[in-house]
Specification:
This protein is of the alpha/beta class. It contains 14 helices and twelve strands. It comes from Lachnellula hyalina.
Length: 391
Amino acid sequence: MTTFDIVSARESFPALKQSQVFFDNAGGSQTLGTVIDSICNYLSKTNVQLGASYAVGQKSNALYSAGFEAAAKYINASPDNIVLGSSTTQLFRNLSSALQFPAGSELVISSIDHEANIASWLDLAKRRNLVIKWWTPKTKENPKLLASDLPELLSSKTVLVTCTHASNILGTIHDIKAIADAVHTIPGALLCVDAVAYAPHRQIDVKALGVYGPHISMLYASEHGLQATASLGHFFNPSRTLDNKLGLAGANYELTSSIPSVFNYFGSSPSEKWAAIEKHEGELQGTLLQYLNTRTDVTICGEKDADTKKRVSTISFVVKEKKSKDFVEKVDELSKGEMGIRWGGFYSNRLVNEVLGLGNDGVVRVSMVHYNTVEEVKKLLGLFDQVLGKA
């Protein structure tokens, strides 16, 4: 296994040269310097409408195409099967507008997902007169989406099942392969997975079953999903690809052109780099979870085990007899604003309110990625001791 070089990793992100500690990465990680340079170069030299035949136009076309191809390669997909967009919320909205199911068809919707993977399907059900079946974990203690829950929810009328790969609050990794196998026992049924909170932590291979860069999202469709998706594009454009169907004038040019810089960050052996990242993040989450598990005044929301096969390094908790808001603001005060943790529901309000039963105050969330250090985690725990008192 390749040894993870934390010094080199941190040098790749210009934002880390300041005193701010970034523990809010589930809301958006920092940007590679090479990506920033790529965006600047594109806007400075090749910022023209795609499709032109003149010299700069051809260069712009090539940069955009290279970015699109790199995005597909990143998840082991064909460029025909992906579309890039401004956000996952927007892409799911576009997708829900392009799926056409008969009235009375059934949707199985996870109740622990980010609202991006819920609201679009509720709207689709309302527009198409579809039946909603909620997929809710059977326990509030470490709630998980299990493939074994699905047989009682699936039927011959099931057309779509939705779920998260890893919750942006719980951090728990779900067995998507097992879930997909269960869903696909129903002929024609589709599975829609939100992998936003998973992709920054593990390598993704869509054929076997995000990125540190600009704020851009990607939606992949299998061949079956592609065929089930109607086109939202202009009538004169071909609808052979997912981008033609859902792209709606194309993704942001300069952000798309920067994607190869993200791919290059992982070097000639991406799998080895990802394995080293997983090991390092395991140390980060192990340090934090070991502390939280010893505290009788803290309840971890989700997986308490630091095993990297069970969870990613997004960790949420609540403190007995303390509001999450007050706890975070006290950490802000003690660190003079330099320790970036958050509180709230993080657009997973149904999980927070209905499954965990926590109300509007939500959770305290510490979301780490590979450029964070064990030293930063220990500094955070020192602040926790000041707020809570030593155990």
